[in-house]
Amino acid sequence: MPRADAHLHLFADGYPGRYGRSPAGGDEFAVYQTLRREHDIDRALVVGYEGAPEFAGNNSHLARLAAEHDWIAPLAYLPATGTDRRGLDRLRSAGFAGVAAYLPDPASADAFADWAATAGGSLNDAAAVVSLNATPEAAGRLGRALAALDGCAVLFSHLGLPGRHAAVPTPEGVAGRLAPLTDLARLPHVGVKVSGLYAVSDPADAYPHAAARPFVDLLLDRFGPARLYWGSDFSPSLDHVSFAQTLNPVGLDGLSAAEAADVHGGNLRRALGRR
Fold first, then answer.
1. Tens digit of pLDDT for each residue in 213-248?
2. Is this structure's pTM higher than 0.70?
3. Could you give all domains of the chain from N- to C-terminal order, each with its CATH number?
4. CA dist 86 to 92, 152, 220, Å?
5. Whole-angstrom Cα distance, residue 275 to residue 266?
6. What InterPro entries does the record point to (predicted)?
7. Hey, what's the torsion of the CAs at 76, 30, 2, 260, to 10 degrees?
């Protein structure tokens, strides 16, 4: 089955990982090239991150890679406060397919919402992909801002970051935890990445991450397979699981062949095709 990866990272010096070196075991770009050929990955949404000093310059690195490899759709890292119109124009000219923001709390979500209120026109005109690493506490503050980004594909990463769970949570607990995110299912341009399941498990290496299944079940019910997007979370995921173990996340085994093809690539290709 051809795939399109909705969430990965590529750092010039490698992701430092839990052991102080890239868990990919070598040059991350070269390793991912091998993996995508082996697993028939024809498109990839590469998510920028510059939120710590060691990751400075990641946007420029991704722009260089995307200029040379047409399978890469890069997303530029932005702080929660965003950038001005000229900054967005520069990113678009550099080949970025959209932007990525990291919103761990309500304050950062409020800052992003304020910025989106002024930048929404430019993002919509570009049919940008907007990737959000946002907790439920942050997602609950974004409804009005995301409603205005109706020309974009807005994708929440890692099942909406519900937190770690040592035991399989109850459906009631899952529904309560993700309520701020599932409330956004009313917006047809909002979707969720089935990625980073290790971040729901305690311990993180408890593959196949049974604690994540009820979250996937809920997201399938509320968003449907047309708005879920598989992502590998390369290379951070390799601190906890193998790349092969990221390919078939728990909870997707009941999909039809057509639905699985959408979640594992078709949905992302269509989102990028709108540009």
1. 999 999 999 999 999 999 999 999 999 999 999 999
2. yes
3. 3-273 (3.20.20.140)
4. 10, 19, 38
5. 15
6. Amidohydro-rel, Metal_Hydrolase, Metallo-dep_Lactonases
7. -60
